[in-house]
């Protein structure tokens, strides 16, 4: 009779996250993850087909957590540029503490599930999520107005800038004048 395992999926994610911090991505494998979780290798494969699939879920969870923190932090009344800094700081934290630590020294293997076109697809999806956060700074979702093409383009440019420069760990003060000008254009385009 199979033993009853509870929270195995959560354990796999937590253990994998810890192992990446300790030894890096390149040392990670399903056998070691299973051993640290105290389960059979086959049990891990019941949930995930590869270590890349585990990593993808961890990254998605971390990204969604970052988006929730952005939503929570930008709810209060503050100048738009300050809210943009919150988004930038959260992105910067994600790039340094999640994405950067894991992948700058331990690149992901090029496998079917992590091929370039799929990664570009994900990158575009994530950029669009940031772009939506930027649009929301100017026009709250409650207004439900259709955004102009210009407003969407400007918010997309801002999202590109935020993501690119957070990946380079640039200081927000360096970007602030250009972003403030783009925010003004975005506000004008949203009227």
Automatic annotation (TrEMBL):
InterPro entries in the record: Homeodomain-like_sf, HTH-type_TetR-like_transc_reg, HTH_TetR
Protein name stated in the entry: Putative HTH-type transcriptional regulator YvdT
Entry keyword set: DNA-binding, Transcription, Transcription regulation
Pfam families, alphabetized: TetR_N
Keyword Repeat: no
Example GO molecular function: DNA-binding transcription factor activity
DNA-binding region per Swiss-Prot/TrEMBL record: 29-48
Domain HTH tetR-type: 6-66
């Amino acid at each position: 009779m199979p033993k009853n395992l509870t929270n195995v999926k959560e354990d796999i994610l937590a253990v994998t996250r810890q192992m990446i911090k300790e030894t890096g991505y390149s040392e990670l494998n399903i056998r070691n993850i299973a051993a640290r979780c105290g389960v059979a290798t086959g049990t891990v494969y019941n949930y995930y087909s590869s270590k890349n699939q585990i990593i993808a879920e961890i990254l998605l969870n971390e990204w969604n957590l970052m988006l929730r923190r952005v939503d929570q932090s930008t709810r209060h009344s503050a100048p738009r540029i300050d809210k943009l800094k919150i988004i930038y700081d959260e992105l910067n934290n994600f790039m340094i503490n999640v994405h950067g630590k894991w992948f700058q020294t331990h690149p992901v293997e090029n496998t079917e599930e992590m091929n370039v076109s799929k990664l570009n697809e994900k990158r575009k999806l994530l950029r669009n999520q940031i772009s939506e956060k930027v649009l929301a700074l100017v026009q709250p979702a409650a207004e439900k107005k259709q955004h102009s093409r210009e407003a969407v383009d400007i918010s997309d440019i801002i999202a590109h800038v935020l993501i690119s420069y957070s990946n380079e760990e640039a200081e927000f003060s360096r970007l602030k004048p250009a972003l403030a000008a783009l925010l003004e254009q975005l506000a004008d385009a949203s009227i």
